[in-house]
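Good day; I would like, with your permission, to put a structural problem before you. I would ask you to consider whether the tokens describe a fold that such a sequence might reasonably adopt. The full record is reproduced below for your convenience:
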Amino acid sequence: MVDLVPKSAGKFESSGIGDALLIGGIKAVEERALIPVIGNATLKSGVIKLVAGGVVAGAMKGKAGRLVGSAFAIDAVEDIVQSLLLAGLGGSEGGNTDGGW
């Protein structure tokens, strides 16, 4: 089977508040930039971001790759959880596709 997400993609990088702020900033920018393309807070957007995070982390290497990969992974998990919570509460898949800038 092909491994789409490198093993190193599962490692989150944060060595302090500065890294946490960078991850949060990257997440905010990528989330808003991707809303018109793949939506937000949907199962589909979460899966796409999870795979993208692994690919980016593997391609960029080093601390920058781990920071960007972490931001994508955190956003992906948030999307998946929100989607499942909405579905569990009897709502539609929900999500945001209007851009949000």
Notes: Helices lie at 17-38, 43-60, 62-88. The chain has three helices and no strands.
